[in-house]
Specification:
Length: 120
């Protein structure tokens, strides 16, 4: 077994391993999270149809000008994606953390989405 060359490659390997058993359906789509150094993105995806049902990111115009911490931005993004998913008729999702640890911004986004009404 070889060791991954970088942290990014190790995360990508974890992500591929997670995605082998995780799939979003029309009844229960996948809430996918991507975290860069400065921003966080979330999408609600129906993998069977290949469609994105709702999306939000920290690059949204209403978030762009404020002086918030990255954790606070993740909380707002979680609330936004949950509200948009609820208006699209989605109540339950499968959480795809994309190989990131369930900690910090990823956990904050998930908690905010739960508080806003998504069930996962």
């Amino acid at each position: 077994m070889t060791k991954a060359a970088t942290r990014g490659a190790a995360r990508q390997k974890r992500h591929e391993r997670i995605r082998l058993r995780l799939e979003g359906t029309s009844a229960r789509p996948r809430l996918a999270v991507f975290r860069s150094l400065n921003h966080i993105y979330a999408q609600v995806i129906d993998d069977t149809a290949g469609r994105t049902l709702a999306a939000a990111s920290s690059l949204e115009p209403e978030l762009k000008g404020g002086k918030q911490t990255k954790v606070d931005e993740a909380k707002v993004v979680g609330r936004l994606v949950a509200e948009r998913a609820r208006t699209a008729g989605v109540a339950q999702v499968v959480f795809d953390r994309a190989g990131y640890r369930y900690h910090g911004r990823v956990k904050t986004l998930a908690d905010a989405a739960r508080e806003a009404g998504l069930d996962f």
